[in-house]
Amino acid sequence: MSGSLQSNGSEFARSTVLRRIDDRVWESDFSADWCIGKVPNGGYTLALGAKVLGEALPHSDPLNVTAYYLARTEPGPVRCEFEPLRVGKSTSNGMVKLIQNGEVKIQLVGVFQHIEDLHGETLTKKGVPDMPNYDDCVDMPHAPNLKLRDRLIQRLSPQNIDALINNPDGNSTWKGWQEFKDKADIDLFGVLMFCDALPPPAFAIYGAKGRVPTIEMSVQIHRSPCAGPLRCQFKTSYITEGVVNEDGMIWDSADNLVALSRQTAKLRVAR
């Protein structure tokens, strides 16, 4: 049996289309259009793997997704092997392995739900941080080999732009806005991608040189975003012996909390 999953006609949706082979196997392709250099962006590959879980599990919407990046991916075909872990009334758990050339490149574990069925207490102890409005932020420049950036609008505070390009200031906090360049609506899988789309905040300390490869990333979804760009903050508070933490918070244009993220990476400073 075969089939495909396509949420809409956006470029992101077309680049994350799945082909169902059977109940446990899907196939897809990592697009070169979502690369940083020669490597597909980690948020993009996480979103594609999460789409497999959304199709394979009885609950379609991510609640929490954690990806372990085991080896470097590349543009081209990817085999997605699904394993169910638990099926409950309100949530289901599953795992998917993303395989290229016979090697597991990413292993992803997720908890899925029907987000429209959520109900209960809501409490926000920490509000939206002080940051410039969309029109007061600046389009982030990028090198020609960062194809991912051609698909996105990314506007950071003027201070962040200066720290990224000219004068690292040690603040290690990005504040700004993100959306698709084709103005497509941002679904929950798009939110997953945007949690890893900006440069590492460590670049505000060491400059935009070297590499900061992600080892693990976890995203917790709080709600579907309303229409419009996402308000974002990403911050690195701790680096220990080259191991970096990065905490992210994403709100929608109505200032509703949409997602929290945390990732572990390794800092490789160019000397």
Overall geometry comes to globular
Percentage of helical residues? 10-25%
What is the fold-level CATH name, i.e. the topology of the largest domain?
Answer: Porin
Mean pLDDT: 94
Oligomer category: single chain
- Uncertain segments are 1-7
One letter per element, helices H and strands E, the order comes to EHEEEEHEEEEEHEHEHHEEEEE
C-alpha end-to-end distance: 52 Å
What does this structure look like?
By secondary structure, the protein is of the alpha+beta class. It folds into two domains: 3-115, Acyl-CoA thioesterase, double hotdog domain (Porin), CATH 2.40.160.210; 134-266, Acyl-CoA thioesterase, double hotdog domain (Porin, Beta Barrel). Helices cover 15% and strands 39% of the residues. It has six helices and 17 strands. It has a 15-stranded antiparallel beta sheet that branches. It has a two-stranded antiparallel sheet with strand order 4-5. A hairpin with a 4-residue loop joins β2 (18-20) and β3. The chain is globular.
For the structure shown, list the relevant keywords.
271 residues, alpha+beta, Porin, two-stranded antiparallel ribbon, 6 helices, globular, disordered N terminus
Please outline what is shown here:
With 271 residues, this protein is an alpha+beta fold.
